[in-house]
UniProtKB/TrEMBL annotation:
Transmembrane segments: none annotated. Keywords: Viral release from host cell. InterPro entries: Phage_terminase_lsu-like_C, Terminase_6C. This is Phage terminase large subunit. Residues 310-453 form the Terminase large subunit gp17-like C-terminal domain. The keyword Iron does not apply. Coiled coil: none annotated. It comes from Tessaracoccus palaemonis.
C-alpha cells in the first residue's frame, strides 16, 4: 500500500473514532425529547436507542431494524440518530438514503432544523451549506448528504450510512426490477462510499422476502448484519425482544389500544400483517406450498381407504408457548383428504383431553402419528393403554426437506382441504404458504408428517416405513 493511501486510511479511521468533543444527550431518545417534548418514548424505542448506541461504537457495525409503520422508528433513526451522532462527533460525514429524493430531503431538513433550533447542542450549521440535501457543520468536517434511491454519491465518503425505507410500498416491493435497483444502489453506490470502520443502519418495514433485508441477510451475510425485529404482537415469549407475554401488543408511540391493534390486524389481512407488522414476509403465491395448489372437498368422502391422525405437540418446558395441532387425514386412491383439525395452545392435561376427543370423533382413524419430540413421548406413555394405534414418529432431515418431499402432492392437485368457509382453513393455507419464513409451522409439520406416511403406507395398518419418517 502506498504511503498516501495508508495516511488517508489512518486519517479516516481517526476521524471516525475521534472522541466526542461535545457533551450532550446521553441517548438518541434524550435528544428526541429535546427536539420535540411531545415525543413518546416506548420500550421499542428504548431497544432501538440501545442498538444505535452500540452500532456507533462498533467498527464496521451492520444493523437492520424492522418494526411496524407509524411507531417512531424512522424519526428516531433518520432524524434523532444523525443529530445525536454529530453531537458526539461533529466530524462524522453522514449519508442518509431513502426511496425518493423528496423523502431524503425531508429527513435531511429535519436534522438540519433540529440542530439549528438548538444551539445548546454545541454544533451549528455552516453558513454556506444549508440546503436540505447537503449541509455541513461550522468548523468541522462533519455534515449530512441526503440521497434518493439510485442517486449517485461519488466523491462523498461516509463515516456513517443510514438507509430509511428503500422501498415505497407493496407495488415497488413486488417489482423484481425495483428490488434489483435497490440492490444495485447498495452494491454499486452506497457500499462503495463507506470509509474504514463506517457503520451502516437500515431501518424499514418488511414488504417482501427478497427485499433489501432479505438480500443483505443472505447475499451479504458475511458482513455480520445484526437484525432487530420488533413485531407488533408477541409470537414467541421466549425470544420476544420486548419480553412480552404471548399475543401481547407493543406499547404504541401513537397510543394505539389493544382493540385498535386488533382492528388494524383485521383490516391489514394476513399477508400484510405478517410482513409489515410482524416482520416476516412471504410470497403472495406461497413458497414451497403455493396457495392455488389446494383443492377443496364440498362433501366428506364416503369411501376412506386409510384414515390416520397426525399430531404435532408443544415443546417440553414451555407453558402454552407453542401450538398443539391434531389433524385427521384419509387417502382414497391417489388423493389425500384433510378431514378435520384441532389446534390450540394447550398444556399437557388439555393436550391429552384433545387427543381423546379427536379419537372419539374419528374412531376409524386408528393410526395416530405422534412426532417423537416435545411432549410426544409423554402423550404416548399416558394414553398407550387407553387408545390403540399411537405411533411415535422420528423425523428425518430438516423441516424444509420434509416439506419439499411431499410438495408434489398438492402441486399435482391430489390434496383436498375442507370447504374454504371452514373457519381454520384459511389460516392453514396462510401458514403453509409462508413456510419456512412464517412465525409458526405446527400445521405444516402435522400435514407433512401425515402426507409422508400416507404416501408410503397406502393401505392397511401402519408398518415400518422408509423415506423421511421412521415408524417405530
Amino acid at each position: 500500500m502506498s504511503t498516501a493511501i495508508w495516511e488517508a486510511a489512518l486519517e479516516a479511521a481517526a476521524r471516525f473514532f475521534e472522541p466526542a468533543t461535545h457533551t450532550g444527550p446521553v441517548t438518541p431518545g434524550d435528544l428526541a425529547r429535546i427536539i420535540d417534548p411531545r415525543t413518546v418514548q416506548t420500550p421499542a424505542l428504548d431497544l432501538i436507542d440501545a442498538a444505535l448506541e452500540q452500532l456507533l461504537d462498533e467498527p464496521d457495525g451492520r444493523l437492520i431494524i424492522t418494526m411496524p409503520p407509524q411507531e417512531g422508528k424512522s424519526t428516531r433513526v433518520a432524524r434523532d440518530f444523525p443529530a445525536w451522532a454529530l453531537v458526539r462527533n461533529p466530524d462524522l460525514r453522514i449519508i442518509s438514503g431513502s426511496y425518493a429524493q423528496g423523502l431524503a430531503n425531508r429527513n435531511g431538513r429535519a436534522v438540519r432544523n433540529a440542530i439549528a433550533a438548538h444551539p445548546d447542542l454545541g454544533i451549528t450549521i455552516a453558513d454556506d451549506h444549508g440546503a436540505a440535501s447537503e449541509w455541513s457543520l461550522a468548523g468541522h468536517h462533519g455534515g449530512l448528504v441526503s440521497v434518493g434511491r439510485g442517486a449517485g454519491v461519488a466523491g462523498r465518503p461516509a463515516d456513517l450510512l443510514i438507509i430509511d425505507d428503500p422501498l415505497k410500498d407493496r407495488a415497488e416491493a413486488d417489482s423484481p426490477t425495483i428490488r434489483d435497483t435497490c440492490w444495485d444502489w447498495w452494491t454499486d453506490a452506497l457500499a462503495a462510499r463507506l470509509a474504514p470502520g463506517a457503520p451502516v443502519v437500515l431501518i424499514t418495514t418488511r414488504w417482501h422476502e427478497d427485499d433489501m433485508v432479505g438480500r443483505l441477510t443472505t447475499l451479504d451475510a458475511d458482513a455480520g448484519w445484526q437484525v432487530l425485529n420488533i413485531p407488533a404482537q408477541c409470537e414467541e415469549p421466549d425470544t420476544d425482544p420486548l419480553g412480552r407475554d404471548l399475543d401481547e401488543y407493543m406499547d404504541s408511540a401513537r397510543r394505539r389500544t389493544p382493540a385498535q391493534w386488533e382492528a388494524r390486524k383485521r383490516t391489514a389481512g394476513s399477508r400484510t400483517w405478517a410482513a409489515l407488522y410482524q416482520g416476516h414476509p412471504s410470497p403472495q403465491a406461497g413458497g414451497i406450498f403455493q396457495r392455488d395448489w389446494w383443492r377443496h372437498w364440498h362433501h366428506p368422502p364416503t369411501r376412506l381407504d386409510h384414515v390416520i391422525q397426525s399430531w404435532d405437540m408443544a415443546f417440553k418446558g414451555t407453558d402454552r408457548t407453542d401450538f398443539v395441532v391434531g389433524q385427521v387425514w384419509a387417502k382414497i386412491d391417489a388423493d389425500y383428504y384433510l378431514l378435520d383439525q384441532v389446534r390450540g395452545r394447550w398444556n399437557f392435561p388439555e393436550t391429552i383431553a384433545q387427543v381423546r376427543l379427536l379419537s372419539d370423533r374419528w374412531p376409524m382413524a386408528i393410526g395416530k402419528l405422534v412426532e417423537d419430540k416435545a411432549n410426544g413421548p409423554a402423550v404416548i406413555d399416558t394414553l398407550r393403554n387407553e387408545l390403540p394405534g399411537l405411533i411415535p414418529v422420528e423425523p428425518r432431515g430438516g423441516k424444509t426437506v420434509r416439506a419439499e418431499a411431499v410438495s408434489p402432492l398438492p402441486e399435482a392437485g391430489n390434496v383436498y382441504l375442507p370447504p374454504a368457509t371452514t373457519p381454520w382453513v384459511q389460516a392453514f393455507v396462510d401458514e403453509l404458504a409462508s413456510f419456512p419464513n412464517g412465525s409458526h409451522d405446527d400445521q405444516t409439520d402435522a400435514a407433512t408428517q401425515a402426507l409422508a406416511h400416507l404416501a408410503i403406507t397406502p393401505t392397511g395398518p401402519a408398518t415400518h416405513g422408509t423415506g423421511f419418517w421412521d415408524i417405530g
